[in-house]
Amino acid sequence: MHTLIIGGGIGGLTAAALLAKTRHDVTVVEASTEWGGCAGKFQRRDTLFPVGATLGMGFEQGGLHDRVLRLLGKQVPVRLLDDVMTLHFPGQTMTYFRDRRKHLDSICGHFPDAADRIRSFYDELWKTAAVIRTLMKPLPALPPKTTREWAYLAAFLRPPHMKLAPFARLTLFDRLQAHGLEQETAFIQLLDGQLIDSMQTTSCDVSYLMAATALDIYHEGAYYVDGGLYRAAETLAESIRENGGTLKKNRRIVSIKKDRCWVAKDHRGNEYRAEHIVFNGAIQLLPSLIEGLSGRHRKMADVPTWVTHTLYFTLDDAHIPASFPLFQQISAHSMSEGGHLFMSISAKDDRLRAAAGKRTMTVSTHSAPEHWQSKEQYDAYKTELTEKMLSLIETVYPDFRQAILAMETGAPKAWERYTLRPNGFVGGFPQTAHHALFGSLSHRSGLPNLWLCGDSIFPGGGTIGATASGIHCARSIAPGLFSL
C-alpha cells in the first residue's frame, strides 16, 4: 500500500514518519528546499532564521511531540523555560511563569483590585484544561465521521468529561463575564495577546474550551530549540528515510486526479501513483489541485484567514541588553495591524543561528489580507507596517535600531512564494466557538483515501495541532498498527 504525502510540514512529516515506522511504502514531496513549512528555516550568509514558529511546546514527557519522537526512537534537544516569555502591555510588563501559582500571583499583583475574581477564573480554567488533557492521550478525532471514530471517542469518555458539555458553545468572554471580569480591559488584553498567537482570535470569539487549553499549555512545558523548530521537522524526515520512505524536495504538485488510484503530477511532469494521499497544506490551495471537493471543506476553502508580516533581524549582540528575554509579546491597544508583536531572539550561545557576537531575531504581527491587494497598496503598506513594528519595539527597547546589522521582511507574498499558501494565509482558521472542536474540519476530505492535515484541520494551528492532524491521518490509513 503506497501513500503519497504532499507537503513536508510538521503534519505531513508526522504522518509519513509514523507510516514508515510501520513499514508502509511512503513518499513525501515538498515544493521548497526545506522541511518544516511554517516551522522551517532559511539562511543568509552566516545567520539562520526560523521562518515562523519559534516557541516549542509538546516536548515534555507525555507531550505530543515527545510521544511521537519516543515511538520513532528519536530526540530533539530542547531547553525547558521556567520564564516562558515577557509580556508588555499598556503601562505594564510582566513575566509569564511556567509555574502556575507563581504566574497567577504575578497576574494578581498587577491587577490587585480584581485579584479574587481572577483567582476564581483561573481556578475554573485550569480545572477545565486538566480535564481536556485527559483526552489528549487517546487523542480522538473531531468531528467524528465514522462509526469507528465515534466508538473510539465514546470509549474514553468518563464522568468528568461530561462537565465540559455546558462550556462547549461558550466563548472565553462568556466565562470572564461569569467571573465579573468583563470590565477588566487591561487583564483581557493580556489574555488576548496570548490568544491571537495561538488561537488566531481573541476572547470575544474564541472557544472557551480551546482557550483554556491554550492559556494552560505553557505551564505544561515551553521550550527553546537550538537552531529552531525546523530541527523537529528534519528529525522526522531522518526517521522516514531510515525506515525506507522516499523524500523529494523541489516538487510542487500541480494536479491531483483519481483514476484506479490517486495520481498526482508535479511541476516537472513527474507522476506519483498512490492508494492514499495525505495533503499537508492550506485548505485554500486544494480546489485548484483537485475536482470533487465538496461540503464544508469546499466552503471553508474560500474563507480567508490572517496573513502575517514578519521582520527578520541580524543583531549586534553588543547592543542587546543582558536581560533581553528569548521570547516576548508587545501588545498595544489593537491585536492586529502591528498593534501586537511576537518576538523571539536566538540564545546568546546558539551557534546554529548566528556566529559569536551576533543574534538573530524574528518579529511577527497579524494583518488582514485586504491591506495587501494591489502592488501599489502592497508596497506602501509593507513600508508602513515595518515602520510601525520598529516603532513599537522601540517603546520597550529605545536603542533597538542601533543593534540592527541587517533586516529582511517577510510580507504575505513571501509566505505565498515559499510555503505555497494562497495570498500568504497562515495560522489556520480562528478557533471560534463555532469553528472549533466539533465544528472543526475533519482530516477526512470526503473523497476516498484523500486525507488532510495541517493548521486548517482539527485541532488547528501550531506544531502541536499539525502533529495531531498528522497522527489522525496515519491512524486512518493504518488503524491499529501503532499506539501513541
TrEMBL record:
GO terms for molecular function: oxidoreductase activity. InterPro entries: Amino_oxidase, CrtISO-like, FAD/NAD-bd_sf. SUPFAM superfamilies: FAD/NAD(P)-binding domain. Residues 10-477 form the Amine oxidase domain. GO terms for biological process: carotenoid metabolic process. Coiled coil: none annotated. PANTHER family: PROLYCOPENE ISOMERASE, CHLOROPLASTIC (PTHR46313:SF3), PTHR46313. This is C-3',4' desaturase CrtD. It comes from Domibacillus enclensis.
